[in-house]
Amino acid sequence: MEMIEIPKKEYEKLRMRANIDIDLLKQLTQSLKDIKEGRIRRVK
């Protein structure tokens, strides 16, 4: 395994992005489940 060094600030920024991406994926997954189960309503 090859290792690299990055500044702590950059590491924290990347970790925060990864967490946001995971949360977004969870929200999208739940939304698709709601749509499939008919738990949506049209908003005008």
Q: Explain this structure to me?
A:
The protein is mainly α. Helix content is 66%, strand content 0%. It has one helix at 8-36. The longest helix is centred in the middle third of the chain and has 29 residues, at 8-36. The mean pLDDT is 91.
Which key terms come to mind for this protein?
1 helix; 44 residues; mainly alpha
User: What Rg, in angstroms, do the CA atoms define?
Assistant: 18 Å
Q: Globular, elongated, flat, extended or rod-shaped: what is the shape?
A: elongated
Task: Tell me the number of strands.
Answer: 0
- As a percent range, the share of strand residues is under 5%
The helix count comes to 1
Which regions are unreliable across 5 or more consecutive residues at pLDDT < 50? none
Structural class label: mainly alpha
Largest sheet: none
Distance between the termini: 54 Å
The SSE order reads H
Any chance you could write out the topology, listing elements then pairs?
Elements: H1 8-36
Entry summary:
The protein is built from one helix and no strands. With 44 residues, it is mainly alpha-helical.
